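Same chain as my last thread, 331 residues:
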Amino acid sequence: MRVLVTGGAGYIGSHCALLLHERGHEVWVLDSLENGHAKALAGFLPPERLIRADLAEQHRVEHALMAHRVEAVLHFAAFALVGESVIRPDKYWNNNVAGTLSLLGAMRRAGVGRLVFSSTAAVYGEPQQVPIPENHPKAPCNPYGRTKLVMEEALADHAAAFDMGVTALRYFNAAGCDPEGRLGEDHEPETHLVPLAVRAVLNPGKPFRIFGDDWSTPDGTCIRDLVHVTDLAEAHVLALDAIRPGTMRRYNLGNGEGHSVRQVLDAVGRVAGRPVPAEVAPRRAGDPAVLVADSSLVRAELGWKPRYPDLDSMVGTAWKWLSTHPRGYAN
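reply #2:
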């Protein structure tokens, strides 16, 4: 299948583009490179398959879809920093909502009717039950989560009105890197738990910050459901294969098991062979104590089963890449 991956030079997008390539799909990547890295694609994607463009450039997006006879889109191109979304909601609404609507317009004119959408557990807000099922009430507590929820509803309307096939995948906490060390995680600023812990080991002068140690959890630190990035990529490929016209599906992606911040730090320490320097900081507003997914629906309907569910495997693949790429893709 001929597939366009928007945001495909980013962390999850590049891992998904690699897996699609390995499964025999013809892959093109569209990325502004504001946050993505062309070097992430260099090992498997010819340079002409990377289209440097913004979603707002609708004519360029439409031209790419038509020129390459694209049959499906995997859409990762979004801003995803919760804190930044509070300070710059305009940026998030313009890109995550207006940009996605622009993409949908280009897809309709190009006759592309299949879309896998990168969504988030942030659509739920403060959980009322754990594990969280897909039908849990939606009450996002930041602009980032609201933009994703609004787009889910817009996509459902497009599926019904234009006979599109759409699947939204709600990630919990992505972690790890390509097990073979070909791809990694390189954000600036970095906000993800595992790479921040690894950086603290590699740069002992900058300790890891634990945001609160007085939560109502066994060790007082927040609990999160970590899922390996390669397993996320596998779910996208399964979703692509299962898309049907006129349908909208929504699935949680998580291991269904939570790990506390201290457990993650302990795992990084085991893999690194030395403890993670850490300090306790005040709680952050809007942080739930526990976020764990009920992902039974995607397992039942798509046959998804994580290959790297244990914490040490996830941390180990992250350490493998980050410790050999201390400057990220700049190395």
